[in-house]
Protein 1
Amino acid sequence: MIARQLSSNPIRKSQVAFVFVFVLPTTRCLAHCEFCFYETGHSERVEAVDFVEPLDGALEALLDQGLQQVIISGGEPLLAPTLPDLLALLADKMIHLLLLSHGELLDEQRLEQLEEATVDDITISALDVGQQLRETVHRIMFHSRYTPTLLTCLNRANVGQVPGLLEFSTHRNLPHLFTPVHVPREAACHDKYSLRGLDDGEWEQLVRTLEPWAAASDSAFYLGMMRDFYRDMPVHPGFCPMGTRGLVIDADGSVYPCFHRHDLGAGNLLVDPWEQIQANLEHKGKALIGAPCFGEHCLSMFAGIQQ
Ligand code: SF4
């Protein structure tokens, strides 16, 4: 989704110009997926603060400069006490609003709230074709105006579910994203979940299964990138949207050019004036042009990118 907007954007790749921002109102989640960045220790959960007021000024400045989309993420954003205020703020902005949720908390009341708050789209987690996914999708499709996008975090434990997941989304005409989980090699659950554990035959089978999806969703480049990466072939995207087109506002108010580059922190909404934060972002984001820090942990950011 992000990539499609970017690919039609005339901004030069050598420029830092923000068109989307991830806003994380909380890093808490109830799902505790073992392979999650927060569970494996790749990322640290932070204490959430209320940054809605300073966010207003930041968004106004970014909107003037071409911001197109706010992606509300987490953790599970529906757990954030500040979510109603955040949505009320965002409802006043002429901007595309996307909410990423695990999905289990999306009851009819929440769906109504999201509609009232003018959230444009929702993406929910789809790890397997279980009863929970069926019920969640049914609720969303028949009790709201949303057509949810499914997000499958591909891992060694659920590759067998891919045909069923594809059948599920195709049958309902639902957009579907597949992104590999990143499990650090030192994590106790690495062998259980990392796609590195698939043998050649399993890879061949997975790619063959995903090819129709990739062709239908302009994801052929991405699927090839994923396959080559895990088959230890040379892969480098040459461009990364993070830090040049996108930024992250973490639950504690900290602002980063990328989820994975906390070493490039640009300031905190509660402490620093936005002008200073943005100057830092633009300066530090230049270090990310050309994606010098690309690795397995970044693959999910490239879903949908065409080259
Ligand atoms: S290449 Fe990876 S670590 Fe570097 S900015 Fe992009 S997503 Fe972040």
Protein 2
Amino acid sequence: MRDRNDEDKKNRSVVKKVFKILEGIMLKKILLSVAIIFCFVSSSIAADLSPIKLFPPDMKGGKSLMQSLQERKTSRSFNTKKLPIEVLSNLLWSACGINRPDSGKRTAPSASNRQEIDVYVAMEEGLYFYNAKAHVLEPVLKNDLRKNTTTFPQPSRSSVEGAPLQLIYVADYSKMSVYTNDEEKKFYSAADTGFIAQNVYLYCSSEGLVTGVRGLVDRDALSKNMKLRDRQKIVLVQAVGYPE
Ligand SMILES: Cc1cc2nc3c(=O)[nH]c(=O)nc-3n(C[C@H](O)[C@H](O)[C@H](O)COP(=O)(O)O)c2cc1C
């Protein structure tokens, strides 16, 4: 009788173990399915957005350089009106477009010609990447990330949020292997960003647009929202729009 009880107990514990193993397998399968669905959904987010083919730069427009310098200033007050494609095209080319196709060099200088600063453009319809070589805005995410650039309290935050465009300057450290440590990479990428941001300031004053660069940005949160890689570092953000 005792032997039988022992055997029953043994059988029950074997059945329990089998159930536990099955439970584990089911859980893994469910988690795997969820991960596959998540990957599929996130990779198809940008698929709904089309690339924006930009116009060649218009070299004739705008005020003189001296006049543009005289009017250059930081603005923190923006109209919500969107920028026409022609204006967006000229703005991005002025920022860091290719001005010497033979060498692929740009309107802004870059240390050791690393060209490590990528310009991301956050608009209502989504986040885009400026491909200077093709002069095209490539879709990255369908989300409107403009608000995610203004999460740190600062002057006139609410009006800055209304700007139709936030340029996000991202340094790609993987293009900077010429420098031995991150301190050098940080220094040169910050300097290179400054030239691009100033080009944008001057284009804006030349065209009657307003702009303001910002260093007060929650870089960790914004990097996550933008799904940046580890070696991509947000340097500055710059709002662009029409005066209020
Ligand atoms: C690297 C850098 C970071 C800045 N960060 C901010 C910022 O986070 N918020 C802001 O409102 N202005 C920011 N500014 C704008 C400055 O406050 C502004 O340039 C300064 O007040 C001088 O005004 P001006 O550009 O009209 O000459 C920044 C400027 C630079 C160059």
